[in-house]
Amino acid sequence: MADRNATTVMGRGESLLFLTDDQLRRGIEAMFFAYRGFTADPDRILQDYGYGRAHHRAIHFINRTPGTTVNNLLSILGVTKQSLNRVLRTLVEDDLVESRVGTRDKRERHLFLTPKGAALERALSEAQRNRMRDAYRAAGPEAVAGFRTVLEQMMNQEMRRHYLDDGDGPR
Amino acid sequence: MADRNATTVMGRGESLLFLTDDQLRRGIEAMFFAYRGFTADPDRILQDYGYGRAHHRAIHFINRTPGTTVNNLLSILGVTKQSLNRVLRTLVEDDLVESRVGTRDKRERHLFLTPKGAALERALSEAQRNRMRDAYRAAGPEAVAGFRTVLEQMMNQEMRRHYLDDGDGPR
DNA sequence: TTGGAAAGTCAACAAGGCTGACATAAACTG
DNA sequence: CAGTTTATGTCAGCCTTGTTGACTTTCCAA
Questions:
Q1: Do A153 and B167 touch (CB under 8 A)?
Q2: What number of H helices and E strands is found in chain A?
Q3: pLDDT tens by residue, B57-71
Q4: CA-CA to A68 of 20 to 30 Å: which in A111, A128, B13, B167?
Q5: In the structure, how far is the CA atom of residue A17 from the C1' atom of nucleotide D1, in angstroms?
Q6: pLDDT in tens, A28-44
Q7: Nucleotides of C under 7 A from a protein CB
């Protein structure tokens, strides 16, 4: 047990972390296995619709920021427009997403969930929130704070912007 | 700020977490964006070899448990044997992995990294460990413990077994 | 000794990434 | 106003990595 955990040593007023390769490897595998659990429930639901994770991601971020443009979604998702377009096309065809021509700039398309799309979004996010909530409850409040802190540090700088870019921050 | 974080209330000797849907949604997005960061560095390296994440995963777990069988790897990775086989075939062809016929049971193949494979493994895991270490350092020791705890709770039961199944536990 | 189960391989297909080329419309710029 | 840039969409084709189905080899138990 003592051999497994990171050791904290106080020196010169700062706490230093000594991390062995094995401890880091465990963190890496934790990410791998946890991400599988994280996506397992939505994946199951999506299968009934013939959709995949790509559809889930689009639906999630359209729900988070209704009226977002294709270009904005592109930079959040980090895929090519061809790839996103394929997904969006099926979602529009199936009446889950509505694509409205921009009023100010008519080149832009603003994306919204239809009632049908919102219903699927609720089913997906409810499943995912339930798992997240259960994990949080079992881990306790301090663990939750640490979890979020480490994840934020693990993101690329650019992604951190998108992650924060719907709150009360500047810009 | 006060509105953003989970609130802890002490009642009947237990701490209760009140989690809003927005707080949970942030956790969900944190996982999404962080996983992208988590895989970004290895992905870059793999590109030079013409490999993908599937190759990385195989190499990682063969390195962790040298001599593991295809079947064992299968249950860890959670893909079909046909899918894994394709990846393993290219790795064997490229002399990164050696597949030895089992001595006790000749149906089994035991997998090992060649020196070449071990070199790639080191490059990949070093990149990933560096990111993990930086995140840990920036987040601090308490955050790291919480991070691991929440991730462990988020795994499926079956995966938790694989995650722990190389340590000092029973069986 | 024979039939079933288990491990692994081959073939073919689908989802969802990618690049490249090109079209259209709208906005912007000199 | 002409030319360029921007936002979006589309077609074609490729790659990785998942899938299912069919098959071989090997092992084991009745």
A1: no
A2: 7, 5
A3: 999 999 999 999 999
A4: A128
A5: 66
A6: 999 999 999 999 999 99
A7: 6-12, 15-21, 25-27
CA distances, B74 to each of A107, B81, B84, B92 (Å): 48, 6, 7, 17
Provide the pLDDT for residue A7.
55
As given in the structure block, the two tokens for residue A96 are 């889950």
> Which chain B residue lies closest to A128 (C-alpha atoms)?
B28
Q: In which element (H, E) is residue A145 found?
A: helix A141-154
Enter the pTM of the model. 0.88
Least CB–CB distance from A163: residue in B15, B33, B143: B33
pLDDT for res B56: 97
How many angstroms separate the CA of B22 from the C1' of C13?
A: 40
Interatomic CA–C1' length for residue B142 and nucleotide D7, angstroms: 46
Ordered strands of the A68-69 beta sheet: A68-69, A109-113, A97-101
**B133 to chain A: which residues are within 8 Å by CB?**
19, 24
| pLDDT over 90, % of chain B | 75
| B2 CA to centre of own chain | 34
SS3 A110: strand
Whole-number Å distance between alpha carbons of B155 and B163: 9
Nearest chain B residue (CA) to A149:
B139
| Helical axes B115-139 vs A21-49, angle rounded to 10° | 90
Q: What is the pLDDT of residues B1-44, one digit of tens each?
A: 434 455 555 444 345 567 889 999 999 999 999 999 999 999 99
